[in-house]
Each structure stands twice: as C-alpha cells, then as structure tokens.
Write a structure and sequence with these properties.
The protein has 37 residues and is mostly helical. The chain is built from one helix and no strands. The chain starts with a helix and ends with a helix.
Length: 37
C-alpha cells in the first residue's frame, strides 16, 4: 500500500516538474520571439 502511494507521489512529482519545465520553455520562447523586449 505504501509502495503504491509512493509510486503515485513520484509520478505526480515528475508530472509537475515536466509541466513546470514545459511552461518555462514556452515562456522563454515567447520572450525570445516577442519583438518588444
């Protein structure tokens, strides 16, 4: 039971990390592509 919970927690943590990284990449790309900066 605890192993299953730990696995789900690690999976959600990885999803959060990937989502944050994707959001950061999109923001940096928008900043680089925007003409006013």
């Amino acid at each position: 039971m605890s192993a299953c919970k730990r696995h789900i927690y690690n999976y959600s943590e990885i999803c959060i990390i990937l989502a944050t990284r994707l959001f950061y990449i999109i923001n940096t790309n928008n900043y680089a592509l925007s003409p006013n900066h």
